[in-house]
Amino acid sequence: MIPFDYHNAQTVKEAAALIDHRSVQAIAGGTTLIDLMKLNVLTPASLVHVRDALPSGVSSDDQVLHIGAATTMAELADAEKGGRAFPVIRQSLILAASPQIRNMATIGGNLLQRTRSPYYRHPDMPIDGHAITNHGEGVDTAMLAVLGNSGRLVGMYPGDFAISAVAFDAQLELSNGETNRRVNAREFYQVPQQKEFQYSTKLKPNEVITGVIFPVSASLKNSYYFKIRERSSYAFALASAAVGLDIQNGIIRRANVGIGGLGSIPWHSAAAEQALTGQAPTDDVFRAAAQAALASAQPPAGLEYKVTLAQRTLERALQTLRDDGPLDDDALWAMQHGRSDTQPTQRGA
Amino acid sequence: MNRDDKKASGSSGAVGVWPRRDFLKGVGLAAGAAATTSASAATASQQTEHSSATPTQREITLTINKQKITQPIDNRTTLVDLLREHLAMTGTKKGCDHGTCGACTVHVNGQRVLSCLTLAATIDGADVTTIEGLADGDELHPMQEAFLRCDGYQCGYCTPGQIMSGVACIEEGHGNGSAEETREWMSGNLCRCSAYPNILAAVRQTSGAEPASDPAEQTS
Description:
The complex is a heterodimer of chains A (about 350) and B (about 220). In chain A, about 30% of the residues lie in helices and about 20% in strands. Chain A has 14 helices and 14 strands. In chain A, helix 4 packs antiparallel against helix 8 (about 160-165), helix 11 (about 270-275) runs antiparallel to helix 12 and helix 12 packs antiparallel against helix 13. Chain B is an alpha+beta fold and about 220 residues long. Helix content of chain B is about 40%, strand content about 10%. Chain B is built from 8 helices and 5 strands, in the order αααββαβββαααα. Chain B has helices spanning about 5-10, 20-35, 40-50, 80-85, 140-150, 160-170, 180-185, 195-205; strands at about 55-65, 65-75, 105-110, 110-115, 125-130. Chain B has a 5-stranded mixed sheet, with helices on both faces. In chain B, strand 3 (about 105-110) and strand 4 (about 110-115) form a beta hairpin. The longest helix of chain B has 16 residues, at about 20-35. Chain B is elongated. Chains A and B meet through strand 1, helix 2, helix 5 and helix 14 of A and strand 4, helix 6, helix 7 and helix 8 of B.
């Protein structure tokens, strides 16, 4: 880690005036930033601590769910009017990271986490400004994007909560301390442009995320986050699906679909939603939606499996939601761990 | 003159090369001086650095295991380094140093966090509890007793983090549900010896979900 200046901001205005997101970066929980600074991948000259400056707390009514940017992942997951009321939000948070990290990481920072691709995380690897044309020998490619990559090798967005944000059409509140604006999460993230190795955002210099707003809907209440990973807990997604269904009289009135673990940005699938809306919730309809969701996939060599994996992840998520409704925690562990042992473990059994 | 020639002339103490014995003496002197540097001298040198173009020093105050400390630190100092390197509290372990193993888990303001990803400057004024702060004198914390009873380790390196996480896991209300629930809420602490069954037993016994017993005695 190179030396840096440190400033503890008390107000959004004070913080925003300093932060340019390049040489002067915001630090809240620090779980992404400190990790990448230790690797000398991020080398800001100055850090501005924003945790005391940003609003925190969760509130909701019949219309909207509002989340302050400094709310931790753990606080949002456990909030009666947050994660406890909206399954996909709780599930995409508690399946995202360890309890320790969820106590540290804020929602604002969580939305901005960087790709986990080793091409980005290793300072010897070419990064932004240098297009990657070939796989490095022995480099783990699972964190490269399959969707939204323009046929190039670019980093995959690794987060889970942001998948829920784009699936359920959340808005981000951005502020420079004087003027505030809202940007749809679906537009906030920009796929990597020429030579960029990972996504960019609509966040301007001297602007910070101050909140997240979800419109409350029947499908947000009837929702599910299903995550496939290399081990049953505490790992990034190989593929995941944030789904919500509003089924009335046997017809899907409204569907929300987000896909994680594949996109260069948190992936909202309008194609899948279109294939579901107005249809009966049958396996055939789910399969067609999953195929539509992955129709634009351009898997790098070796990642073809992710297309099939993501289709089956989405199909199964929709089936589980249709058949079992929103899952409680115990059902979630059973699904994620692949076992439902509720008895004390007996050693040597 | 090639590299081997240089080496040969160096060992014979030729002009321009520091004789090995004198070099070692010099190092010894420097090390001794550093070791006996007074606190005021150290502060003075830090202030000198502080006034340079890139000020990176600050002073923070923390309450660690009920004891208030004030410590000058470099901005880059993480909590685990503050504990281990500045305060010689080596109970907290540094594993991966990147937030993937949980060995460095401590409690900050009553919540379990990873001290390796916690920039010390960001928690100025906070209340910190480490593994050294769990026992009451010679009386071990029930979780420490349970790890002994259940043999919840082999090498023991992850143990301080496991114990700090286990205590928090119970406080958060995830210690007396299903075994699956506790497994999930302990999943941020890796154990390369894979003592997981006994770690799980220790946490569940401490929470009261299982009666206190030695898991080995259940083996037939």
